Amino acid sequence: MSIPPVRWCQRKDKILLKLDLADVEESTLEVALDENKLTFSCKAGGKDYKLEIEFLHEVVVEGSKWQVHGKSTEFWIVKKEEESWTHLTKSKAKHQWLSVDWNRWVDSDEEESDEDLGGFDASSFGGMPGMGG
Q: Residue 69's CB: how many other CB atoms inside 10 A?
């Protein structure tokens, strides 16, 4: 099983993740989010993929969203506390599958409420499945 390449950036109130996987077979897609962790698995291009991210800080399931596109799967994850994270994962280790999405990165002192999310259209995203009360 392979780990998909992940690019991430943040705003003071959210984390934006982009998994670079083309042609995800949606029937094999499994996504789970809790306050500390995102788990993702699917089949794409004939290969099995699995990802587990234990976040540096807590996130909020309600209001977090995701969407599958033709060449990627994107996540919009709400932070529990509005703060800038020094890194994404609880582990400070350098992960080969994880990189910063510099195309969408905005320094916290330059951030505005009506920011450009680099094509990230959160209004069309689905909610996180299986996360009901």
A: 13
